[in-house]
Each structure stands twice: as C-alpha cells, then as structure tokens.
Write a structure and sequence with these properties.
This protein is α+β, with helices and mostly antiparallel strands. About 15% of the residues lie in helices and about 30% in strands. It is found in: Secreted.
Length: about 625
C-alpha cells in the first residue's frame, strides 16, 4: 500500500528531528565552500567525512607545502599559530590541507602486518583540516596561505596537500615537520571534586610515562609553605576501545593521564598549585601556575554559584574542520564562561562532552579549549550517548554514537567521584547543594543498581543544611517538548518518568537538568504531567513538584520543538546558552538562563522556601499518618 502524502511528510519530519535531537545521525546541508561535493552534514563529526582509507598517493613535484615556524612553544606556550604556504599546479575546489600528528602518517604506521599491497596507504585521520580555497585567490593562482592554531599534543606535526576532495583524497605534497620545544610537557589541568567535600582532584595530560618522570602537584595556601602530592598515572591502548573509528582511523596515542588528590582543604580557602614532573636527574618540568577556591563545607551558608549545561563539544578558533555546521555555539559558551569565571564556583557539563565520536585527537583539543575554566573551578561531567553508546558494550542504548570509545575516553580524561568509573553515576555536595548525577546510558529503572543509587542519593541529604536538591542526567528522564521526544508521545525517554517521578516527588527534588536535546526549556513545578503552581517567576512555599530544565544548548547544532508547547512548558528557546544557579542562603535561590552569545539573562525565577516547606506533605510525598488522639 502506498503511504499517504501526510504520512510521508510526518515520517520525514520524525527522521529529521531524530537527526538533530542529539543522536548520531546528521542532516545534509548545502554549502558553496564544501569539499569535493557541494554539501556537508550538520551533526556529523567533520573528520568522519574524510575517506582516509581510500587515499592514494601521487606526489607532484610542482606542488609544495611549507610550514613555519618549525619550533613552537619556545617560551613554554602550549598553543601556537602556524603559517602554511602551499601551491598546486591544478588548483580546484576539492583541494584541502590536513594536519597530521605524528608527522609520519604513511602505511608504516598502519596496525597489523605491514607490506601488503592491498592495504591502505594512510591509516590515520588528520587532527584537523582546512579547505585550500579558504585562502583567497587560490583558485586563480594555485597558491595560498592558511593559518592553523596548534596545541601541544605530545607529537610533531606535518601538513599535507590533497586533491580529490574529502571523500577520495589524493596526496600530492607534504610539508616539513614542526614540533613544540617540549612535546611531553604537562598540560591542560582539570579540577574536579573528590569523594569527600574537602578534597580536590587535579587531572592533566603529558607525554611522560611513570618510568621517565614522577608526576606530582605542588600546592598550598598563600603565605604557607607548599606541599607536594604524588599523582597516579594511567593510559589506554587501541585494544581498550570497542570499535571504529576509535580503533582504526581515529586512533591516536593519548599519552599519559595523571591525577593527584589534594586533601584536607580548608573550606572556601584560596589555594595555588602547579603540576610538575621530576626527571631521574632531579630536574623538574613545570606546568603553569594556577589557583582555585576550596569547596564549602556541606551545609555552609555562603554565596554559592553553579553553572550547568550539556552538549557543548569543541570548535576551532582557526576555522578548521567546518565546525560551523557541527558545534557552532561551543566557543561562545566557553568564552562567556571564562569572562564570568570570577562569579562561578563549580561547573557541570552534563554529557556529550567533546563529540569526538572516536577521533581521539579531539579530546586533547577539547581539554585545551576549556582549560581556562577547568584549571580554576571544579568541572564535573556526566556521561552522554556520544561518550558511551556502543553495541554489545553494556550501554543501555545499543547505538554507535561514541564512535567506538564506549566510555573509555571520558572515564580516563576526567575524574568523577564514582564508585565504579564504568558506572558513571555519583553524588557530590557543594555547600547548600546536593547533586545526584545519574548515568542515562545505563539502566535507571526500578530494581537496578542505579535506581538504588538515585534513591540513596536523594534520601540521605539533610535538607536543613542542604536545602537545594538537584538531579542531573544527560538524556531527558523528565520533560522535554523537543520535536523528537514530542513525536514519540512520551516527551521524555520511554518509561523514564514512570520509574523516577515518585522518587523526585517523595524526596522533594527542587530541580532536574538534562541535555541531549540541543535547546533550552523550563517547566513549571510539575508532577505526573500537571503543574503544581501557576506561578512562572517567583516560587515559595511547599515543593509541589520538580522544575525540569533542558540545557542542551551548550554548543552543538540546535534542535527544534514541537509546534505547540505543552501546558507544563513555561519557557523554551532554540538558542545556545547555560543555566546559572545562585544560592544566597538556606531559603533563597536565583535561577538564570543566559545566552552564550552575550551572557545576558533571558529566563529567570526565584525560590523562597523555609525548611518547614520542604517537610510539608504534597501529592504522593508523605506516608499515611495517624490522626491525633481525641
């Protein structure tokens, strides 16, 4: 039977929404500046567009590539701008420049037996690329100049000129090699709260194995003698990953990841620190000098400011990789947070961290992008589909969105206070806040290990001292009128609310945050699909329901909404942004949604509530009571 026209249109819209709702698919978008063909894919990892396994080699004596300067970071910098001059005898719109690291990227680096005539000639994707015609007049003269920003990633670099577009590349020229003065230098520290309130962890990356140098952190309070704390060292290999491209063209040696635990911190005290590596001869290779403020004691009444967003990803400041089609808001979010960093105490990036999707080099580039934030305030992450999902790997969803990473990169590159790093759920206290961070890529339903964790996390907080109770997950387990969720009819992940809403209600959860859908939306205080209050901007009294917010507009391509807003949807916006919570004391909280483009507030409300209001019985929140004796 032929499908009616209306049915075809509905099917198209559902498929379109599925592609932009945060999953692994993409939507074709036409662009005059694309490579060999006239399109790129919105929502597709740009490096995956390169058919590197199909590459051929035809070095042309009339073609050339020259990169300068040859030595980078001579004053200890971990980023540098490089000028690439190139020429081709037959310039075309399909020509492009790829950055390869290590600089040697021929067939000798391919895994498995070498010397086979039938194997690929190039086995590793570039770490970034630019189209040759980004240089003006290249099409007319066959000569061009491009600027690339490189970061210290432990290996040297070379630049390659290809013809034939991205899908059928042909190598015609390779540049000289360039390198950082110390490729192994310790870089890109990431702070995170430890398992106890007075513990801060410092994680960073270097090229030093424990056999070459001893990693440590030198730290202390101002005017006090510093102390040194040793760091543990881990890494992973290709066989640790689950599938392509992470094990094949996306593989790149991750170096070594180090974590130190700074303990017995004084609440709210300012500390300074430096990461370092002691060589066998006693010399020390130092990182940069940083500082952080220790967390407040659980229940401490002081000004506390929290930022929450999801789905940010990374972008390129030099215009590489056509990221304008993939994560166009990422740099705006990053830069806006950096500008306001003196007014931020802790950050939650709740899943879909880098969108590396199996291209390992992109994790280094993300850690460099957010380093001004992560080096100064705790940066707490949650697991999303683009970190974890892979078939037959234990993830709840059997998709391929992680590109074969299956959680290994997120679990290794960033510390979280989980009991088991493979199960990415945890609780963390910050002063008057309790955060219960769920892992939506593992089963959350009643009777599971994670359900027991969620129940314990919500039940064990002392609301007299920590009145602000927050639930976090990547996928929408509460409410969203994003088109994909609306088309499915559940307005959330199927069975999610049925499993969890009674827990939220019983324990009077104030706020629940989600990513996955790339937009912003806030609900009323809602329980079982009904608003507990008609108020929109000033809430007070008993907690009649939980306010749910989708904050997936951190940077990735945006997602649309259903045509009509459901009754529980108070505010929704298809733009990039983040939420900032400010707790002034035990009774007053300010909620603000800020756009990444300008940092201005576009949605807000206040909560004023006393402890007796938290105790008050509302629908399904209290057990039956015995009437007083007469």
């Amino acid at each position: 039977m032929a499908m009616p026209l209306g049915g075809i249109l509905l099917l198209f819209l559902v498929l379109l929404a599925a592609a932009v709702a945060g999953g692994g698919g993409g939507v074709w978008a036409f662009s005059s500046s694309s490579s060999s063909s006239s399109y790129s894919r919105i929502g597709e990892q740009p490096l995956s567009l390169i058919g590197i396994h199909r590459a051929t080699v035809g070095i042309d004596a009339a073609a050339s590539v020259q990169a300068s300067p040859r030595l980078l970071g001579v004053k200890g910098e971990d980023t540098a701008w490089v000028t690439v001059d190139f020429a081709a005898p037959h310039a075309s719109d399909g020509d492009w420049i790829g950055v390869f690291s290590p600089s040697n990227f021929n067939a000798s680096t391919c895994p498995g037996p070498s010397g086979s005539d039938s194997g690929p000639v190039i086995c590793s994707a570039p770490i970034k690329y630019q189209l040759a015609n980004y240089s003006s007049d290249y099409g007319k003269t066959g000569k061009g100049t491009l600027k690339f920003q490189l970061i210290n990633q432990r290996q040297d670099f070379s630049f390659a000129l290809f013809t034939g577009g991205l899908s059928n590349p042909k190598l015609i020229a390779v540049s000289n090699k360039i390198a950082f003065a110390n490729p192994k230098a310790p870089v890109y520290p990431r702070l995170a709260q430890g398992k106890s309130w007075n513990e801060m962890t410092v994680t960073w990356t270097s090229g030093y194995d424990i056999k070459e140098a001893y990693p440590f952190v030198e730290w202390g309070m101002k005017w006090s003698p510093p102390t040194r704390t040793a760091a543990g060292t881990v890494t992973f290999d290709r066989e640790s990953l689950c599938g392509e491209p992470a094990r094949t063209v996306g593989w790149r040696d991750p170096g070594f990841i180090h974590t130190a635990f700074l303990t017995d911190l004084w609440p709210n005290k300012e500390y300074y620190y430096k990461i370092g590596h002691m060589l066998p001869d006693g010399k020390i290779v130092w990182g940069k000098f940083y500082s952080f403020k220790a967390p407040p004691f659980p229940g401490q009444k002081s000004l506390q400011r929290v930022v929450i967003f999801g789905d940010m990803g990374k972008a390129e400041r030099d215009g590489s990789n056509e990221y304008s089609n993939y994560q166009p808001g990422s740099l705006n979010t990053t830069d806006t947070l950096i500008k306001d960093l003196d007014n931020i105490d802790i950050v939650f990036h709740i899943g879909d961290i880098t969108y590396a999707n199996g291209y390992i080099s992109q994790w280094d580039q993300f850690t460099q992008q957010v380093e001004p934030i992560t080096a100064r305030v705790p940066y707490m992450i949650a697991s999303g589909n683009h970190e974890r999902d892979w078939p037959n790997s234990g993830s709840f969803f059997n998709g391929t969105d992680s590109g074969g990473e299956c959680g290994v990169l997120a679990e290794t590159m960033y510390y979280t206070p989980t009991e088991n790093r493979a199960n990415y759920w945890y609780k963390t206290d910050y002063g008057m806040f309790r955060f219960c961070v769920a892992d939506s890529e593992h089963d959350w339903r009643e009777g599971t290990e994670q359900y027991a964790f969620i129940e314990s996390c919500l039940a064990t907080v002392d609301r007299k001292k920590q009145p602000w109770l927050v639930f976090i997950a990547h996928r929408v387990l509460g409410y969203s009128s994003g088109f994909f969720y609306g088309a499915g009819g559940a307005f959330a992940e199927p069975t999610a609310r049925q499993s969890l809403q009674r827990l939220w209600q019983r324990h009077r959860v104030d706020l629940a945050f989600y990513g996955h859908v790339h937009n912003y939306e806030r609900t009323c205080p809602v329980y079982d699909g009904r608003c507990a209050s008609p108020e929109r901007s000033r809430y007070s009294g008993a907690v009649g329901g939980t306010i749910h917010a989708v904050v997936g507009g951190g940077g990735s391509h945006l997602s649309n909404f259903t045509a009509e807003a459901p009754p529980w949807s108070v505010y929704r916006e298809m733009d990039y942004g983040f939420v900032k919570l400010t707790a002034f004391n035990y009774t007053s909280l300010l909620y603000e949604y800020r756009r990444s483009s300008d940092g201005e507030v576009h949605d807000s409300f206040t909560v004023h509530r006393e402890y007796r209001d938290v105790l008050a019985c509302v629908a399904d929140s209290c057990p039956p009571t015995i009437p007083p004796a007469t």
